[in-house]
C-alpha cells in the first residue's frame, strides 16, 4: 500500500514547517510527503530544495488551492500511489490521524474519507462545522463516522479508484469551491464520503465572513470573501449551483446577494457578482 500526503503551500513557510513536522510525527510512517509550492516568495522554495526525509517538492506558478491539489494528486496518481492524503499548509494532523483514516477506511471499504476538523485554538469546537447541528466535538460523541458530511481538503484521504471514476480536481476553480465541487462530484457518481470521528485534524477557524442579508433575520446569510478574489468565489458558486443544485437554489442565492449588495450600496460588487456567477453557470473559466 502506497500513500502520499499532499500539502499545498503559498507564502506560509512557518506554517508549512509546522505541518511537515506533524506529518513526521505520525504514528503511521508508511507514506511520502508531496509539497506543492504555488510560487512562494518567502523562502519556501529554498527550504524545500534542501533534502528532507520523505519529502518531494513540486514548484509551480500560483494556481491557487485547486491548481495545487490538482498537481499533487496528478503526480501521486501517475506514480502509482494507492491513497492520497490532502491538507493545506495551515493544518496540523493529530498524531494518529493517518492511522485512524486508513484503518476505518479499509475496514469499511471507504474510498473518500475525512478527518474531524477541529479549531486549532479551541479543539472542542469544529473549525467549519459539519451542519447546523454539528459544530462541536460533543455533537459527534459515540459516532464512528458521519456519512456525506465532510470538510475537504483538511485531512482528506482519497483512494486512486476515486480518480479512476471521476477524474482530478477542476483546477480552473483556483480557490473557494474546488473541494466542494469534487466532493459533490464523488457523491453524485455513487461514491459516499465520510468524516471519521476518531481521526483529528486541527485547523484555524473558518475565516469566511458571514453577513446577514437582513440585519435582524438570522436565517438568511451570505458569505463575503475579500474583493481581490471574490470573483473566483462567485464563479465557482455559479458552476456548483448549475451542476449540482436546483433552479430554486439559483434564485435563492441570486436574491440573497442582490439584496445584500443593494442594501450596502455596493453596486460595483453586485455587478461583479452577476458577471462571474453567470460565467460559472456557463462553465466559462476562460479568464
Automatic annotation (TrEMBL):
InterPro entries: Glyco_trans_2-like, Glycosyltransf_2, Nucleotide-diphossugar_trans. Residues 6-109 form the Glycosyltransferase 2-like domain. It comes from the Bacteria. Gene3D superfamilies: Spore Coat Polysaccharide Biosynthesis Protein SpsA, Chain A. Transmembrane segments: none annotated. GO terms for molecular function: transferase activity. It holds the Pfam family Glycos_transf_2. Keywords: Transferase. This is Glycosyltransferase. The lineage of its organism: Bacteria, Pseudomonadati, Bacteroidota, Bacteroidia, Bacteroidales.
Amino acid at each position: 500500500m502506497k500513500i502520499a500526503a499532499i500539502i499545498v503551500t503559498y507564502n506560509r513557510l512557518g506554517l508549512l514547517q509546522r505541518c511537515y513536522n506533524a506529518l513526521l510525527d505520525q504514528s503511521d510512517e508508511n507514506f511520502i510527503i508531496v509539497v506543492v509550492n504555488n510560487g512562494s516568495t518567502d523562502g519556501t522554495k529554498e527550504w524545500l530544495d534542501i533534502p528532507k526525509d520523505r519529502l518531494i517538492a513540486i514548484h509551480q506558478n500560483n494556481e491557487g488551492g485547486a491548481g495545487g491539489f490538482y498537481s499533487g494528486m496528478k503526480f501521486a496518481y501517475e506514480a502509482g500511489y494507492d491513497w492520497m492524503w490532502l491538507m493545506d499548509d495551515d493544518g496540523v494532523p493529530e498524531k494518529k490521524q493517518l492511522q485512524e483514516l486508513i484503518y476505518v477506511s479499509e475496514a469499511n471499504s471507504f474510498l473518500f474519507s475525512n478527518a474531524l476538523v477541529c479549531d486549532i485554538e479551541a479543539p472542542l469546537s469544529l473549525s467549519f462545522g459539519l451542519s447546523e447541528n454539528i459544530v462541536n466535538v460533543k455533537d459527534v460523541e459515540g459516532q464512528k463516522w458521519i456519512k456525506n458530511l465532510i470538510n475537504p481538503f483538511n485531512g482528506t484521504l482519497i483512494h486512486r479508484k476515486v480518480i479512476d471514476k471521476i477524474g482530478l480536481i477542476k483546477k480552473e476553480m483556483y480557490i473557494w469551491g474546488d473541494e466542494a465541487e469534487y466532493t459533490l462530484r464523488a457523491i453524485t457518481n455513487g461514491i459516499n464520503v465520510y468524516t471519521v470521528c476518531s481521526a483529528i485534524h486541527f485547523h484555524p477557524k473558518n475565516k469566511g465572513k458571514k453577513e446577514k442579508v437582513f440585519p435582524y433575520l438570522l436565517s438568511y446569510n451570505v458569505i463575503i470573501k475579500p474583493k481581490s478574489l471574490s470573483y473566483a468565489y462567485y464563479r465557482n458558486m455559479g458552476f456548483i449551483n448549475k451542476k449540482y443544485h436546483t433552479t430554486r437554489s439559483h434564485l435563492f442565492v441570486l436574491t440573497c446577494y442582490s439584496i445584500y449588495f443593494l442594501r450596502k450600496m455596493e453596486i460595483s460588487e453586485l455587478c461583479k457578482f452577476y458577471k462571474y456567477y453567470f460565467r460559472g453557470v456557463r462553465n466559462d473559466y476562460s479568464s
